User: Fold these one by one.
Assistant:
Number 1:
Amino acid sequence: MKKLSIISLGILASFQLMNAQNISSKKWADLFSYNNVLALKEDNGKIIAATENGIFYYTISTGEISKLSKANGLHEVKISAFDYNPQTKIGLVGYENGSLDVISPQGITYIVDIPIATGYNASKKINHISITGDRAVVSVGYGVSIFNLQNKEFGDSAFFVTGGIYQASNEATIKDNKVFSVTNTGLKTHELNTTFPVFSTWTTELAGNFTEIDSENTLAFSSATATYIYNNGVSTPIAQTFANVSDVVVNADNIIITDASRIYSYSNTGTFSGSVTVGEDCNTATKVGSKIFCGTVLSGLKSEDNLIYKPDGPYFNYSYKIRLLNDNQLLVSSGGRADAFNISLSNPKNPGFYFYNGSEWIYSSYFLGNTTTFNILDVIADPVNTNEYFFTNYNNAPGHGIYKMKYNSGSKDFEFVKRYSLDAIDPSLPLNNFLNRPVGFAADDQNNLFASIAFAGDTGILPAITYYDRAADNFLIKYLTGLASNGAQLPLYYENLFWIPLPRTNNFLVYDTKKSQSLSDDTTILLGESNGLPANSEGTVSIAFDKDGDAWIGNTTGLRILPNARAEIQNDPTVEPIVVEQAGLAEELFRDSQVLQVEVDGGNQKWVSIDGGGVYYLSASGEQVIKRFTKENSPLPTNSVTDIKVDRKTGKVYFVTYQGIVTYQGDVADVTSDFGNVLVYPNPVVYAQFKGKVTIKGLAEKTNIRITDAAGNIVHSAIARSGYYEWDLNNQKGKRVASGIYFVLMTNEDASDKATAKIAVVN
């Protein structure tokens, strides 16, 4: 992964280890999946469910559902453990990277890391958390650590190490001032005393491979097939053989055992009291009153009467590319690529694609239990038949090709229509799943549908273009002979041409269909190093066009601009880097960084995603960094954002990653020569509550701004060119203005439109 080299261009937020700043705000929201419920707790009629990327709360009496994620309070994604104490109202969230969030009525505190044993280099994933009073025992790959919830500090740790070999604590609990830990070699115990950290002083109560444990009035633990009740040094098995126990939950008066899709209830003495099934696999379950609630793998929270409760979201979090459709609809492809965009990132969950119909997320039943391996890099609505959809299956396995699906709005489901295999040129050759793998779609201005193909031909050394012949209901392939690249990226149609990054050679392809349905007269233009692409690049990755007609081309080692691209592409043009000055030295913007995506907003500013470097928000020219978002200072799940889209009607920005999607409400909607809906916020500006800049949005493409006090004296003037403006509340002498009412007087470039606003300042 290429890392960003000129970090000084970014706006980096300070990041503390504890009591970290709130990295979320009301501008952020998540589009996470809340289907895979990992842990459940109940507090006075409210069920708290922990999922992969967030927590949701379901109030049984009212049906209300709310959620908590990195977009509104948490500090990470990839939750791996959770527990909550209803008496103290404190919860503890553990993540795969070893960090923790303490959730209390006073707020959320971030604990950046767990204690690590000397010489331990394995996973820091939090395996399990169990809270007893104000203490929690945290299970990790090296053993257990005690965490004080009031002080938010770690106490003693016991490193389960013998002869240099570390043993994981799968789960642990505290009962009667003793820690009980289940490991792959047995049930281990130790009093919370001075010798607790010394592993040689721990006792093995029962040998075996145990994975689950919990305690309240009693203690129960389990292997995959047997559950035991522990009492005064005696482990008594429950008289039931299980198939594959995934969780044991001990409540005040019952023991709940989750065994795949069946949930068993026992008294605290082991007397069987019933079982239920919800028809699908569950990670965990608990009993609230007389009803069982299950944390399912794929459906969220499910009651024993098969009612489902969860926040709406995609089926899985895995995401790669997104398309914004009309009527607030979304299409999300879930595939992935790695190693110079060659290797398919096959996913064992076979995620397919996700569709948001404007009011709810839809997942096709076609993907449920389907044995075909899917790696969907793109999905598009047919511009002619809008209830039909095409997707590319890029996998180098049986079933790769282009698929047609039909959406049934009544059943809210997609039906399989046809697969187009895109076989090689010579039908006498055996089918090679590595060849003719479709990547992404684009439609021209006549609604003709095209797709790019990688590893095309009989030997896989070419890229190709395929055209959808509606009359024949088939895809026709144009093999681009003479080109050195066998890779291809998603194409972009702009000004009668298809612009296609080539990720495996240092080239960029422009494809001209001559606006005819015949492939025989099509021509190509190829850009390479002689045109200014960086010599050390492994290929081009992304393409975007701004409002000036300039092409922004992202490659594996930087960014290049082709001014006036449509006119200049015919003239053997030279693409140019953006050069900025840093400490008196000229620096190339994003040099040696892989530019995954470029997106242009309504004010002609650019959002640029850098592999491993987060997202930069640049001025129209690219010479100024307005904002920088990373996973450390924002709700981004990861610093590699695979796609960015801006809804120009609303200014909302979609950030897509392999770990889920988040949105950011930008300040720039579609900017024209006239004013839109002018809005000032925050307003009033109370210094004790807000110390940032005041934003004025809804401006014209070029806006002349004068800000006056109540007496009409001009205190600030400026020209805004991006659809919005930020005032630092300083006057023309650089000093903060006094408390009072200030008037904002605005005109567009030719003074044909004007707008006014008032700002109240309280110092």
Number 2:
Amino acid sequence: MSAQPVKASTAKAPPKGRAGGTLRDFHEEDKLGAAYDTQLLRRLWPFLRPHGKYLAISTGLILFVAALNLVRPLVMGSLVANAEKGEPSGLLKYGVILSAVVVGTQALSFVQMYAMQIAGARAMADLRAHLFDFMQRLALRYYDRTPVGRLVTRATNDVDAVNELFASGVLNAIGDLVALIGIVIMMVVLDARMSLIAFAALPVVGAIVWFVRSRARQAYRDIRVKTARLNAFLNEQVAGMSVVQAYAREDEMASEFDSINVEYRDANKQSIFYEAVLDAAIEMVGIVCIASVLWWAGFKRIDNAAIAFPLVVTFTQYIKQFFEPVSLLAQRYTILQSAMSGAERIFKLLDEGELEKVPGPRSKALSTGGPNEAVALEDVTFSYKAGKPVLRDVSFHVNAGEKIALVGATGAGKTTVTSLLLRLYEHESGSVRVLGKDVDSYDRRELRELFSVVPQDVFLFAGTVASNVAMSADEPDLLRVEQALAKVGALDLFLRRPGGLEARVDERGANFSAGERQLIAFARALYKDAPVLILDEATASIDSDTEARLQAALEAVMAGRTALVIAHRLSTIRAVDRIVVFHRGRVVETGSHEELLAKDGVYARLYRLQFAVEAQEKQEQALADA
């Protein structure tokens, strides 16, 4: 079913579906409190400091260009005076000087802007890298409740908004202020009374800026919020497009997107309105001032107190230049508001305190295990949400080289155990140890180097087969890649593909089957060759033929290392040393396959139920084949 395009202009209000309720609550961001530009600029300074030489060059040139601009009206006045006198040599002289001033100003402005944008681009690259590094250190709990699109917006749109400070020359405001002061002095020196006409407009301009200031900041804040929501929704829809199409929800999703898009459009309309008000009002005031000066000059002629025509030309040029920096300051002010609203959200993320724990002084006093201990949990309790424990007083030990299976119904807490071992989440009470040391005493990178993990939901990165198998290394060793694939019985499978080990892997491995992705994940774990292996539902996505192909390889993979195997398909774990049975967050049984069947407890019930289902499925398949 193909969705018909929805015209954004026809949307009146968000639909009463997900976009009108839960979706909005999930994607909308908290309102920010008061933030001051000076505080935000101070926080941006550490990223600018390493590139200070470019800023220094740019600032010096800004001042020099401002001085050259002050000279230009004087040269034009002299040019007009010589024209009145009919002196060709004077015309030529001042024409050449004016040309030199204009060309010199433009050339220096180019160098100045180039230096400023180099400083800005490098500083923003550093800020973006800092943001990415910070996001890597955030605890997984934060990602559980934060839309991906919002985080992407921080590192892209919001950083780009801050970069507009440099790209649009906002820092040229220094030159604008210097030029304004110089112009005021020159105007007063030339004619104090005519200067008052221009200065009388300043309160009007100030009132306009005051009116626009807070409204423009809020408008740009709204744009940042709507941008994040738009990106989050798009990310969700693209990732789930197969589900949207399978359930024929294209029209409904288009309607939800339309409501979000209209809000984003309206937020931009508000900012455009305030920017247009500021530009038009200042332009109008400037024109009225020039007209007033011309009227005053004409009035003085009628009054027989003539003002020299060259002076009028020079003065009107200064008035134009007077309102030029005023107008530019106003424009740059609106850009500053956009940049500061982006900076607010960037630093709001950087102020997030939910980071992964690092080893502290108390680590030395943490519990330790015996020399032969590989993994241990003692009285561990853990909750994803307060008051809803997923694990309750869980205890079990695994010796080095032992193969342990964790089984139980969905939601019993099996995968949570592996998350605690890797310190993807922090346990609330009890002790979690790896190779005899408490996990809290490890550096997180050092701890995770001890594990090879094969997850149920395999994530492949865009690249090649070799780069995905060797993702634990900076550069793939093709010989090791071949050996890892051979051990899982998949080398011939991938060598047959065009490109072999250098075959392209699309985003998320979309050009590979589920079974092929799982085989790459097995090879990835073997390539890393860590002492502890975690297999989390490792054969859940593999068909029966591929599973049979893997069984012999799995035994070779687990040989000589500690293995934790999480499996719903109990037929895959008969060869393990022990089985730990979870039920509602507790360990209820431990023993071998035969021992647990003899107990006729939770494991025996799971075993009988699963094999009854599998027998029925085989019978139905046989009847279908017949």
Number 3:
Amino acid sequence: MKKLSLISLGILASLQVANAQTISSKKWADLFSYNNVLAMKEDNGKIVAAAESGVFYYTVSTGEITKLSKANGLHEVKISAFDYNPQNKIGLVGYQNGSLDVIAPDGVTYVVDIPIATGYNGSKKINHISITGDLAVISVGYGVSIFDLKKKEFKDSAFFLSGGIYEASNEATIFGNKVFSVTNSGLKTHEMNTTFPVFTTWVNEMAGSFKHIDSEGVLSFSSANLAYLYNGGSPVALSQSFTNVHDLVVNNNNIVVTDLSRVYTFNTNGTFSGNVTFGEECNTATTVGSSVYGGTILSGIKNEGGNSFRPDGPYLNYAYKISLYGENQILVSTGGREARFNTPIINTKNPGFYYFDGAGWIHPSYFKGNSTIFNVLDVVADPVNQNDIFFTNYTTSAGRGVYKMKYNAGSKDFTFTKNYNLGTNDLSARRAVGLTFDDSNNLFVTIAFSSDGTAYGPFTAVGAYDRGTDDFLIRNTTQSFGVAQKALFHDGLLWIPTPRVNNFIAYDAKNTVNTSDDKDYILTQANGFATTSGGTLSVAIDKSGDAWIGGDVGLRVLPNAASAVKTPANVTVEPIIIEQNGLGEELFRDGQILQIEVDAGDHKWVSVDGGGVYYLSADGQQTIKHFTKENSPLPTNSITDIKVDKKTGKVYFVSYDGIVTYQGDVADVTSDFGNVLVYPNPVVYSNFKGKVTIKGLAEVTNIRIADTAGNVVHSAVARGGYYEWDLNNQRGKRVASGIYFVLMTNEDGSDKATAKIAVVN
């Protein structure tokens, strides 16, 4: 296929479409929000809609909803434009990075010409897509490009370059044999002929700043407050004026103008038909028969009766930390910090937290329209009464501190109970960070920038929740630079990373909320943290009792952590050294370790800022998997939280661009066998060329694989609850077609299991 090269002179040199590998599988699922509907198209009683992170299909007559996202076919998130042709059933998705997905009955094709093109350094975001027949006109910051949907390749491009400055096409459409584009300086047109790429041959039909355009039988376009009907002569303004036009759509019967929360319809000769309000702001709207449907910013698709339709998901995609508890219940915080984990990141939509009750997602009404600024860094359920929810509000404004709320299953909503100011009214002091329960269900909060008792001070502190007084008892640690992360409770201690200072805290609360006898132990750079690191960010304790501590730079391990940390003068934290090309290399030497999680098999999941997620063997010596946004459904390469449901093996990856899950192979690993499963089985080479997975194993499993004659073709010792066989025999050659028996015993031989694998080469 041809390659598209964007040359500064605006001359089309060559063209290309690139196909990417399939990055999704049945193991992945998304927990994306589908509330923010950007574009819609009607297809014989079905609405095809694009949201920020996926496309969904809503059948009006049955209410059926299906979705397509990066977890099951698309290649990106952050959708910025979309159109769909009901005649050929082809949709085109445009992304903020300039890439495209062609959704066709025969599959999804990834197009990366615009992101990789040279010669144009401006924004490559896809502003708008308009499909006419088998052609689509794509509006970008440089102008417009024509895309052939059948061939899945670019045709001509026109670069709106004048005086050395590019002008963006806000939107464009094909009408007749012409392309019509609206820009901030006017309505521009050109026939699709040999001079199309030459900007000086384009005609400025009407001066002005125009934002939206569409055509189907007739052509209409709009400025911020007026819409026009174009019939080949002079454009004629429609009879209504508007406040702020968000979109304009032309279909067979109507011109539909979306103006904030109100939608106006006109027939195709420009006569006003009526208007509908949806009670909230809309991005777009369309008609199905005589009914109007709005594409809202916060409620998915809405009909005139105010009913909402979209795939279930959280309120927004923005997420920071996640808590798993109860029967498939989830709490998601939406806060964040920057400036070395100091300055709050304030989300203007003020979402607070999201809750999944095991059946559906709920967003507390408490946060909607609330004037308090919420930057929720953590949210947890009380094990004593799981309807009581605590969350931290890390801000330097009124309303900071820890909050308690109560969930009402009947109303599926939360009510405010109390705001704890942590003993001070100083808005800059005692900023609540993370919440942790110990084995006795005592609640602790880590606190940054705690007071020294007289004024705002630089201490890291711990607050213990006293259920009797319904308040927090605060104790400053000896860490004199006021920083903290969420604590991990393990072996009777609270393990607290300290961003902004190259230390680490182990805090002993003595299994009580009485803080008078508490003690803290501080590890410093002298204990072996990387000299270039600016702090510690994450921690996990594995089955051996070793602490894996993620730093601003690098990863360190503290063996026998619970006992070793109590004598910090004698402690050295060690890097993991792996062999690379015959030389020792420090694992993640320059990486910022955002999160570490240990699964039931003692394997480590490690999130590296900008580097995706690594799945490591128990000792860290082997990388079993490495997921990035390029090779997996991860929405970004910076995952802010990882949680493993050890009962099921499901792994949750959390980010500011949304949440995805991966069904891992390790769950409930014990010294005995679980439910042993082999997949794929049978293994047909023409369909599958990877390794065969055997899961449900014991912590340590002796494996022998034999053919039907009893000859052992492969043997191994599996650790961590699962094993992957590459179908090679002991000589490194692929085994022949046939039936193979898997004979397994646990470490001490007290439990056995068998399985069969059918191989078809």
